[in-house]
Each structure stands twice: as C-alpha cells, then as structure tokens.
Write a structure and sequence with these properties.
The protein is mainly alpha-helical and 264 residues long. It folds into three domains: 46 residues; 92 residues, no CATH class; 79 residues, no CATH class. The chain has ten helices and six strands; from the N terminus they run αααααββββαββαααα. β5 and β6 form a beta hairpin.
Length: 264
Amino acid sequence: MSPRNIKNEIKDAASVAKRVSEYADKQLDKVASGKTLKAQIKVIPESRFPMWATTLTSLICAQPELANLTNKKLAALIENENGETGLNHTIISKKLNAGQHRLVAEILRKHGYATDTLDTGSDIKRIVSGDIRLETPKDDGVRFYADGIEILGKRFSYRQRSVTPNGKPWHDFCVRLSGDDTSLQAVLVARGIGINEFVNRDEVACACASQEETAKRQELNRPAQRSRRLSKLTKTIAKSSAVLPHIQSHHRYNRMSDHGPTTV
C-alpha cells in the first residue's frame, strides 16, 4: 500500500470544502431568508486509524514507561502497530469521542486505573504515568477475549452453539464445561454479568484482540437466521387462513340448506 501524503489530503479537503461552501452560499441567496442563513462545511481526510485511542491505551497499559514518550513518538508506535502511516500526532491531545472514551475507559479500568479525569488521549498518558488508581478496582474473576472467556484464571474457547443463530454472541456462543456445552448467556448469569456489561467488555476485547483471536471470532460469527420453528408456524398460520374462508362459506351454505328453500 502506497504511503499517504496527509498534507496534500488536508489541502484537497480544504479546497473541496471551499467550493462546496461557495455553492451553498449561492443557493442560500436564492431563498427569501437567505441573508439570515449561513453554510458551514467541513471536509476532512478519512482516517486509517479509527482505533488509535484503544491501540494507544493497550500499548501504554502493557508498557507503562511508554507514557513518558512524546505524542509524536507514540503516533509512530501506533502506526507500526497498525501497519499504516500518516497518523497526525496532534490527534492524541484532542478530546475523545463518546465511543473512544467508553472503550479506553474500559481498558484502563481493567488495568486498575481511574477514569474520572479521562477526556483526551493525553490523559491516558497522564493517568498511567501518574499511576492514578481506582480506590476499589473491580475484579469479578472474569476476563473476556474476542474468541473466549477466562474464569478464575482458566480460559475457555467460544464454540458455535447448536441453535438457530440470531447474531448475538451471548445467544449464539457456548463454552465447554465439564464435558457439556453451556450457553454463554448461562455463564454470564452465573457470574452476575449483565448483557449490557458483556457487550461493553466484549467490544473492548475485540478491539484489543490479536490477529489470531480476530480470525477465530470471524469464524464463529454467523448472521442472524429465521428460526425453522417460526417458519413452520408462519406457514401453518398461512394455510389455516387460506382454508378458513372456505370452511366458513361451507358452514353458511349448510345452515341455509337446513331451513329449506325460501319462498316469497
């Protein structure tokens, strides 16, 4: 893959934004209230690093000494980790969006760090380098991976459950316990973990997964399918609906026949 020229892309984006903005202003002049309206156009290069924040957090949590590096050096590490180039190091000092904040906070909490002062990528460095810890770090004995679950230090691989998949891992996956396939949902209930909590922790696990774990998860994932029982029930109802008018019509005819011919 050819390296990106991020400066040229930024120039191109600015040029496009200017042309679109000029066109929008001309259109606004044509409407009656045009003088009170203002067009605001923003065009930016598409990022090749949508997960830069979780990558950064995973790197720093694994090696806390990296928190002392400059943003420029950290950006180079993220590039190396993703096999891409063109990450602008200034993004690290910017505010995290809601999705990034949730995923980064989950990783930090798993490593025992407090997240109440987390706002930007630079805060990740500050929290780790300052060793700002949770007062009561959560430890439920469960750790999630993209392709499995670890309970009290023992890891269990996810398996495809023998059910019609509905696209939700807690329903479609199971683990082998004492020789039996136990649904993941039953395991979560037994460990006191709600579905929403699982979804959040599973997203983090997938975001931080190795290539091997990601490949296994992709093999496990199956698209939602319509239940065979539901299909049979639908067909049965459809047949019943088709037969019912005929039965009702025949019943009305028999009732009329019982009374004999009608005379006027």
